[in-house]
Design a protein that fits this description.
Elements lengths: L1 H31 L5 E6 L2 E6 L10 H16 L5 E6 L4 E3 L4 H9 L4 H17 L4 E6 L2 E3 L1 H4 L6 E4 L4 E3 L13 H4 L7 H8 L3 E2 L2 H4 L5 E2 L5 H9 L6 H14 L14 H7 L5 H11 L2 H10 L4 H14 L4 H16 L3 H11 L17 H7 L11
Parallel strand pairs: 2-3, 3-5, 4-6, 5-7, 6-8, 7-10
Antiparallel strand pairs: 1-2, 8-9
Length: about 375
């Protein structure tokens, strides 16, 4: 026993030094990490994910996905973590979407990124949708595309008066992915189909009225809300809901305002319930009211291929589970990477900004059911596996 006791005093200061050094390194990394694209911290009962690319409106890129996914999985297993909070920095956006430019450049030259990005993004969407820990997304500011995928599948989505939601993919030759085929057809009536095909933007309290957000609070109250959530001791879903409900009930902004689509819901439900895009167009033309004609004008600018793909995606996704939807969407993403319209849409909307994409095929009639069907076919060994 002698040698062991003699060693003890020598080890004690070393372990104390180790603790101090570790603490210093953690603190230093907290300061120097402010330049990191995503910040991942454990605070109180919560794991906190902060998207930190404010200049790029917190657009999601592959390196961010590769940092968030493993940490989410670690926190899910950690008995000391009860809650995951996700937010964005900069005050303008939660997350304005995926890093479309990088994907476009990769897709043009056949780079692996065009496969890896979608594969790993959808795996992250699924991890959020199946997360065993409570997941709270603070969707303050612009929340589109990839940002919707980071929030909508979680337990709680908190919108503010600054929130701007859209799934504008049909305008760039894509489709409302990140599990859009799962959550959009499950919104009330045909509102999900309407949002998917037109890219219509919802703001503030309207997100909650549409069923996309679970709560609505003032943007300036978010830091206080976050502190109250972090301070909870071993919270249950009820405890977290109680905190969110308290803030929600106190928020008076736009309390009396009618839902932006309220007066149009009957029209949306009837006009967008058709089985084909051609029928939807026909419905809008025949109706002829200002709202219908406005939607017709919007839809006529979208990629005909994307419109047909999206309608089928939502109709099939309505009866699928999230995993099957994401597997289907991965197939569609790769069809878009091998097609024409995605690159043309990105050019027209994001690069040259002339807003005049030349779609191929240029009309709905030219997009055959056979072609659309081929986009849904299994990729064999390359399929997404969840």
């Amino acid at each position: 026993m002698g040698p062991v006791t003699r060693q003890l005093p020598r080890w004690r200061p070393f372990s104390r030094l180790q603790v101090i050094l570790q603490h210093l390194i953690q603190n230093m990394s907290k300061h120097t990490d402010s330049s990191a694209e995503v910040l991942l911290e454990k605070r109180g009962c919560a794991g906190v994910i902060t998207m930190n690319r404010p200049k790029a409106l917190n657009a999601l890129n592959l390196s961010m996905i590769r940092q968030i996914y493993p940490r989410l999985k670690t926190w899910e297993k950690d008995p000391e973590t009860f809650l995951i909070i996700i937010k964005g920095t900069g005050g303008k956006a939660f997350c304005a979407g995926g890093d479309i430019r990088a994907i476009t450049e990769a897709g043009r030259v056949g780079d692996r990124l065009a496969q890896d990005f979608f594969r790993e993004e959808y795996m992250l969407n699924n991890a959020i949708g199946t997360c065993r820990k409570l997941y709270v997304a603070l969707i303050d500011g612009i929340t589109m595309g990839g940002g919707v995928g980071l929030s909508v599948h979680g337990h709680f989505r908190v919108a503010t008066e600054k929130t701007l939601f859209a799934m504008p993919e049909t305008a760039i030759g894509l489709f409302p992915d990140v599990g859009g085929g799962y959550f959009l057809p499950r919104l009330s009536g045909k509102i999900g189909y309407f949002l998917a095909l037109t890219g219509f933007r919802l703001k503030g309290r309207d997100l909650q009225k549409a069923g996309i957000a679970t709560h609505f609070i003032e943007s300036e109250k978010l830091p206080a809300l976050e502190e109250d959530l972090i301070a909870l001791k071993s919270p249950s879903k009820e405890n977290v809901a109680d905190v969110l409900n308290t803030y929600h009930m106190k928020c008076k902004i736009d309390e009396e305002k009618q839902f932006v689509l309220d007066e149009h819901m009957d029209k949306i439900n009837s006009l967008f319930s058709a089985n084909t895009m051609e029928e939807i167009i026909q419905n809008l033309k025949q109706d002829g009211c200002p709202f219908a004609l406005k939607q017709l004008e919007v839809i006529n600018k979208m990629s005909p291929t994307s419109l047909k793909m999206t309608l089928r995606q939502l109709r099939e996704g309505a009866s699928m589970n999230l995993q099957d939807v994401l597997t289907m969407e991965y197939r569609l993403s790769q069809a878009c990477m091998h097609g024409h319209d995605f690159y043309e849409g990105v050019r027209a909307v994001l690069i040259d900004k002339d807003q005049v994409p030349k779609w191929k095929p240029a009309t709905l009639e030219e997009v055959t059911d056979e072609f659309v069907g081929s986009c849904f076919k299994s990729l064999g060994n390359s399929d997404l596996k969840l």
